[in-house]
Specification:
Length: about 325
């Protein structure tokens, strides 16, 4: 497996400018980071982590034959910490890694990780699938990454973006994160499943961006309000997502969801609006509960919401729209 696939693993170097402050001034300094990636096709498209290329002013990809090429970002999905980049290199220099299936994995299955930990090119580590469907938040956006694979194959800084492979040499995950009190590998690594990557790749190639389903509202978890404020607002529930703003002309607006109104509580103005307590029958207590349902939906699908308004529970049907960038908490 290593002989066949390791030439398809690349070393990615990102260069950006950081500003260092002395006693009097801030001055620019070049900063470099490194990661790994998998060559997907002879067109030079490479799959990696978003955090490997984030804020990069220059990207350079080094192939197994030692040749380096500048790269550009085709698209990215910060929520799932994935990015697709491209280099222009001769076909004969590009060895591709095939995409496998992650939904059929089982705990105990043997896996292999190839990457560039601490700059050591194409290092192989082996292990097993230690767990499946682990809940993991993106360190970039805080949104839930679905179906994360846990492995005990040693993963260290520099492995990020590299492939997690099955025994047939197929990519079944993208090595993304480790749990480590010390900063080094302690045998708890996490990989984004390839099924997620397939959706991201397809969207970027078809639309030039990753399309996400959204309710078309901005909201705040009630847990941010605190017990005293919930009592002051006389809310009948203590958990849920309060809708702050509804996108004009959206299905959410047509379904009857409303913008929050500001009310005076002591010296402060706070929002008071509809509170989402269930989606498709599942309780909503925090953002991750909404993420879990929406991550398994498509744009144009409809969901059933239970909403608390003026002390009453309402059932509304909302058709999902494409998520727009920006907003305080777009859901």
């Amino acid at each position: 497996v290593y002989t066949a696939t390791s030439p398809g693993v690349v070393n990615i170097t990102s260069t950006s400018t950081v500003y260092v402050q002395d006693w009097f001034n801030a001055y620019p300094r070049e900063s470099q980071g490194s990661g790994s990636g998998s060559i997907l096709d002879k067109e030079g498209r490479i799959l990696t982590n978003f955090h490997v290329v984030q804020d990069a002013e220059k990207l350079e990809v080094k192939l197994a034959n030692g040749k380096s090429y500048p790269a550009r970002v085709l698209g990215a999905d910060p929520d799932n910490d994935l990015a697709l980049i491209k280099i222009d290199a001769p076909n004969e220099n590009l060895t591709t890694i095939s995409l496998g299936i992650s939904k059929d994995l089982f705990v105990g299955q043997k896996v292999l990780a190839i990457g560039n930990p601490f700059g050591f090119d194409r290092t192989l580590t082996t292990g097993i699938v230690s767990g499946l469907a682990r809940p993991l938040k993106s360190e970039i956006t805080g949104r839930l990454i679905e179906g994360v694979i846990q492995t005990d194959a040693a993963i260290n800084p520099g492995n990020s973006g590299g492939p997690l492979l099955n025994s047939r040499g197929q990519l079944i995950g993208i090595n993304t994160m480790i749990y480590s009190p010390s900063g080094g590998s302690v045998g708890i690594g996490f990989a984004v499943p390839v099924e997620t990557a397939k959706r991201v790749i397809s969207d970027i190639q078809q639309y030039g961006r990753v399309r996400k389903p959204s309710l078309g509202v901005e909201g705040l978890p009630l847990t941010r309000f605190g017990t005293q404020l919930i009592r002051a607002l006389e809310l009948p529930v203590s958990e849920g997502i309060m809708i702050v703003k509804v996108a004009p002309g959206s299905s959410a607006e047509r379904s009857g969801l409303r913008n929050a109104q500001e009310v005076q509580v002591g010296r402060y103005l706070v929002p008071l609006g509809d509170v989402i307590t269930k989606i498709d029958g599942s309780p909503v207590t925090k953002q991750e509960d909404l993420d879990h349902v929406l991550n398994n939906k498509n744009i144009g699908d409809s969901v059933q919401l239970e909403v608390v308004r003026d002390g009453k529970r309402l059932n509304l049907t909302v058709q999902l729209m494409e998520a727009q960038r920006g907003g305080r908490q777009r859901i």
